[in-house]
Every structure is written in structure tokens, then in C-alpha cells.
Design brief:
6% helix, 1 helix, single chain, 322 residues, mainly beta, 4-stranded antiparallel beta sheet
């Protein structure tokens, strides 16, 4: 596609988006999930948060990256505080989390590295350093770990996703390091996840889409708005900043739709299954949800970033398949 054709396509899509936006976009579908409880609140005390971002589950424990407090907090499924670990020498701004092989992997945005802890909080060192070369990072924001211990790292300002071996040796990258609209390029990628087939899902945040790469690393498909080409909106299946991606049981894909203040749930192919949430500070409302974790029981734990809290949701009894 030449520059003139790209410009024409962009103008057509922009006009289409503006027309649809003028008609509204709020979903009328009934969600298959119901709110259970919330915990947290702004502060520095145990159980409080200052910009919570990442969340992960191991066993019956919920791990939360408490970003501006530079720590990890751990809770049970009912929101009871269990312990905390990390300090400002170990963590700058902890972002999205991954748990694999008995370790917690923390994308440390300000320190340009992946920090490693045991699940009981013992420091295990870090991988990476600041830079633009292979194996270096520019504000890593998301991390996933496969069954071989290899790391997939989303670099927010680096405009790429890197694959590294367990010791941090670079193996591959997706993206050019420069912002891009076309498939295979990124506009501030913020999170990554893997499914049971080895497919890689990238939350291409400011392109308002999810991009998917197959087990060979080749681009497979994308979704979010018309043609998944950076058109934001509030319609079902569209995004206003796709800030995080999580793959749960049955390879269902959970996306934190940051500025639409909701969670959307998809099949691996991008077919919308469910969504829930609305803007606000009350029970079941969100102020910029930024991550979600799925328990084996089907319960969902959502990081309600702007309200400095965690929300717990569960499937409604009549729709337990979601």
C-alpha cells in the first residue's frame, strides 16, 4: 500500500469512526458477571494502594503491583492482607506481573528491567538494563513466561516485544522500535500473554487493539475497531486504550479497556463473549481498570487503577460458562 492509498484509507476510517461515535456506543448487553467485593483505598499502609497496576494469581493468593509504593502486596481471595515485599532499591515502578515455575516476574518500568522474586518475597535478581539494543529495555510494562522459562517482554516506549531465554539472552523481537499502525508494529505496547497453543497476545495500547502472533511468531490476526487500525470507540469489541491482556481458562482473552472503564472478554479469534463495568467509584464501577487476573474458580480480580483498589467479580449462576 503506497502513501496516497494509506492516507485515503485513514481518512475513510476516520470519517467512519466519527460517524459511529456521533451515534453513541454504549453496550446494552447484560453481563454474565456480578460484583462481589472491593478492597484497598489510597494510602501507604498494608492493604492500601498508590497506583495499583499489575495482578497475578498463584494458588489461593492474589499478588498486586502497588506501583508508586514500589512494592508487591499479597492477599487471599477475600481481600485479606497476607504480606508485602519489595523496596525502592529493588523496584522503581512495578507494572504487570507474571508467575511461573515458583517465581514472580515483575516488569519494572522505571528501572528498565524484569525483577524476580520467590513467591514468599525473596529477591532473586533481575534481567535486562536500560537501552535500545537487543536484550535491553526501554520502560518494560508487561511480561509473560512460557513453559520453557522464556520471557516475552512488552516495552512501552521501546515500541516492541522481545523474546529472551531464561538467562536474558535475546532470541527474537516483534516490532521495529518505532511507532507504527500496520500489523506487526506497535503504538506503546503495554502487556503480553500466552495461550495454551503458544500464541502470543499483545495489548497494543495506543493502537486500541489486540494483536496475535502464532506459535511460530508470525502475525495471525488482530481485533479492536474497524480493521483493528487505531480507531478508538465505545462499541462492543472496540477499545479506548487496550491496556492489558490476560488469557484464562479455555484460552478466553480478558482485556482491560482502560478509558472505556470496562473489562471485555473474547475468544482467541477475537469474538466478543462478554463485558462488564461502567465509569464511577461505586460498587462495580471502574476508574480506568488496568489489569485482570482469573482464578481457577472462574472469579475475576480487577485492578481499579483510578480508585486505588481491587475488585472481585464472579460468574452469575445462570451463566457459569463465562
Amino acid at each position: 500500500m503506497n502513501r496516497h492509498s494509506s492516507l485515503c484509507l485513514g481518512l475513510v476510517l476516520l470519517g467512519f469512526s466519527l460517524l459511529l461515535s456521533a451515534c453513541g456506543g454504549a453496550s446494552a448487553r447484560e453481563s454474565g458477571y456480578e460484583w462481589v467485593q472491593s478492597w484497598g483505598g489510597f494510602g501507604q499502609e498494608p492493604g492500601q494502594f498508590n497506583d495499583p497496576i499489575g495482578i497475578a494469581i498463584a494458588g489461593e493468593e492474589v499478588f498486586v503491583a502497588d506501583a508508586r509504593n514500589a512494592r508487591i502486596q499479597v492477599f487471599d481471595f477475600d481481600g485479606r492482607f497476607l504480606r508485602q515485599f519489595g523496596n525502592r532499591e529493588q523496584l522503581g515502578r512495578p507494572m504487570h506481573l507474571a508467575i511461573a515455575q515458583g517465581k514472580l516476574y515483575v516488569a519494572d518500568y522505571w528501572n528498565d528491567r524484569i525483577a524476580l522474586f520467590t513467591l514468599d518475597g525473596r529477591w532473586q535478581g533481575s534481567l535486562g538494563r536500560a537501552g535500545r539494543a537487543a536484550g535491553e529495555f526501554s520502560t518494560p510494562s508487561g511480561v509473560a513466561v512460557d513453559d520453557q522459562g522464556r520471557l516475552y517482554v512488552a516495552e512501552f516506549h521501546g515500541q516492541r516485544v522481545q523474546l529472551l531465554d531464561p538467562q536474558g539472552k535475546p532470541l527474537r523481537q516483534w516490532g521495529t522500535g518505532e511507532k507504527g499502525l500496520w500489523y506487526g508494529r506497535f503504538n506503546y505496547p503495554s502487556d503480553v500473554a500466552l495461550d495454551t497453543r503458544g500464541y502470543l497476545y499483545v495489548a497494543d495500547a495506543y493502537n486500541d487493539r489486540i494483536q496475535v502472533f502464532d506459535s511460530n511468531g508470525e502475525f495471525s490476526h488482530a481485533w479492536g475497531g474497524p480493521f483493528a487500525l487505531n480507531i478508538a470507540g465505545g462499541f462492543d469489541g472496540w477499545f479506548r486504550t487496550a491496556i492489558s491482556v490476560t488469557v484464562g481458562p479455555q484460552d478466553r482473552v480478558y482485556v482491560s479497556d482502560f478509558l472505556n472503564h470496562r473489562i471485555q472478554i473474547f475468544t482467541p479469534q477475537g469474538e466478543l463473549l462478554d463485558l462488564f463495568g461502567e465509569h464511577g467509584a461505586g460498587d462495580g464501577q471502574f476508574e480506568r481498570p488496568i489489569d485482570v487476573a482469573v482464578a481457577p474458580t472462574g472469579e475475576l480480580f480487577v485492578v481499579d487503577f483510578g480508585n486505588h483498589r481491587i475488585q472481585k467479580w464472579r460468574p452469575k449462576a445462570t451463566r457459569t460458562g463465562h
